Amino acid sequence: MPTPTKGARLGGSPAHERLMLANLATSLFQHGRIKTTETKARRLRPLAEQLITKAKRGDLAARRRVLTVVRDKDVVYALFDQIAPRYANRNGGYTRIVKVGPRKGDNAPMAVIELVEELQVAEPKANQKTAGRKAAQQDKVEALAPAEETPAARSGDQDAEAPVSASGDTAAAREDSDLATEEGKA
């Protein structure tokens, strides 16, 4: 648990606050996002991030530590086997808090706290740059390479469309120019 804050607790006693944060964390891991007050979301964020960090370790001691806070074994299983592996290459910042409008009734400021989605396994930054350059170079090579001839063009069918190269000449025109240069050499 994070260090208790000074001042008024969220619901009364420190024990009630711990239980409330544990329930919020359970709901967050179960649903991926929850809507609550801004104050509760801010207090939940450090706890949720610590639990995900412990789940990334994946050992028995970490699982037992998480079980002291999150009492639902199904949620702990999901945390260790589904949520934590998504953040294997991330060192923190697993949650996001987005402010939404005030609650109708008591005008309390509301927020949505959600798990940040890790869409793909990220490569190291240097490799991403070189991979992007290599892909761009490959595209250039493919664009500049002469197009393959179709079987109709090889058979000499003039009505069939002849492939056009990057310079704009057709395969038939290239064959004629190749023959002319060969005759000139002979």
TrEMBL record:
The keyword ATP-binding does not apply. The keyword Zinc does not apply. This is Large ribosomal subunit protein bL17. Residues 125-186 are annotated as: Disordered. GO terms for biological process: translation. Residues 143-153 have a biased composition (Low complexity). Pfam families: Ribosomal_L17. Belongs to the bacterial ribosomal protein bL17 family. Keywords: Ribonucleoprotein, Ribosomal protein.
